[in-house]
């Protein structure tokens, strides 16, 4: 959409229309609401001053970039936001050439801009990267790695710091406090303008004074941090005053050096119900625009997160050695009530997964029992810290890995696909996974006194399996849920529920069902016995096939010299998993129970024809007959 020729009034109207479009679609599809509404005016300013056809537009996390999508040929397609096969909730160059880079994890934008600036310089092109990064995303160390180089190399980059004084929840830490210094408010602005106009009237000789005065102002604005790093700072400006945004971005662009434009915005701007520091409106499901009420009442089984939250609260009330940390996801991980109740034992460290992981190590060393609550996908950001600061020291930190498996509409940057594969190779790590409410509670109780690094993974939303009791956990011990004939279903975590559901579609075939419980260490004794009794194994686990549960079992067969057991894995193939409702994505991957039942039947038919055990399984009739 060409907007450079629009008047300020027309740009105001456009902002209104964009907000209405966002509200219309997000109220129907769900998505990120308050971040996107708050960024509309700044994004209009970006498109007015820069050229998205040549300048790299880089959004940090990019959850706030809906207005950018609406301004770049996706107005109609926006109806398909976050739906399977529709447009993503994040930037994606495969979706549009106006999206410079994929994102979804925070704090990568300035590094991307530095890289782009290097390429532009090497190619001698007239292009300038423009970044939007939120105040919450400024808490991650990666930002300072990038600023450190940028301030030194002085590449022309314009960074818009979209400061709405919110992360998902209230931002924590010195950086956010620094950015929202009191003097950066309207009072300071007025005083600064008055002083500048006064100084302009002074005689030539007074310029030295003016300079000093101007510098002293910088001491009381958030600009100093950046200025000291060699990055020009402009602001704070009103991030909803489009003419002022345009004027400031034009100045920043003309400076030909790295510049941070600090814009103060209101999260949720334009939709009164969502305006302000309201965590709920960061990411929402479908809702009634008039009332703001969710359209889908969250009925049904408790989510795994709720089980985690309630159980840890109960455990923490009885054991003051239990401590915990979240990296800016207090609500999503269920730690919010613990942060409130035990502020001296539970911490939100901001978007700082590396720091969250490492800082728990000394607590374990000092005799505490730390729980690091973190999404599978975000733990990737603290991977070396798991190895270097937790496993190598062999200290008893428990990683409560939420969102393990397919997460749905957040798509390829957020799927919890890799934690089994990336944690299993690490020495001293123990990996376990519950599959329903009671097993999860028992797993957490087991974790409290487990003295070494431990990873417990669990899915987004409710477990697939119903709730029933299981034996207490013992390290490395699996549990055979039911005996069967010929075929063994090996379930791990939520995969146990999937195995149980799949078995229901195979009436006459009564597979044995194993709850593996630990993928490291394996229950070698029981697995040896099962390999003697069951020659066809099917693996149900919600993670990548490579390095996952089937890989672990194949390694086990190899080490034990076990032959003649066929193993089929229903884990994820070697590709990124797209966005969409979880059930729809699973259907696309052929992982719904009815689909898996067909695959089992086909496999058995094939193997019986190949001189298997003489029985023929008819997948249509779902019957077994003697060959
Ligand atoms: C590495 C990483 N950790 C956590 C998240 C989850 N997350 C997504 S947006 C967000 C808050 C971002 O706050 P801010 O940058 O201020 O953007 P705003 O939504 O306020 O515009 C968080 C914590 C993430 N995307 N990436
Ligand atoms: C943008 C981002 O990374 C978070 O808002 C994420 O979308 C939260 O995911 P959940 O909705 O699973 O908590
Ligand atoms: Mg923010």
TrEMBL record:
Pathway: Metabolic intermediate biosynthesis; 1-deoxy-D-xylulose 5-phosphate biosynthesis; 1-deoxy-D-xylulose 5-phosphate from D-glyceraldehyde 3-phosphate and pyruvate: step 1/1
Positions contributing to Mg(2+) binding: 135, 164
Matches recorded under PROSITE patterns: TRANSKETOLASE_1, TRANSKETOLASE_2
Biased segments, Basic and acidic residues type: 606-627
PANTHER family, per the entry: 1-D-DEOXYXYLULOSE 5-PHOSPHATE SYNTHASE-RELATED, 1-DEOXY-D-XYLULOSE-5-PHOSPHATE SYNTHASE, CHLOROPLASTIC
Subunit: Homodimer.
Name the UniProt record assigns to this protein: 1-deoxy-D-xylulose-5-phosphate synthase
Species name: Nitratifractor salsuginis (strain DSM 16511 / JCM 12458 / E9I37-1)
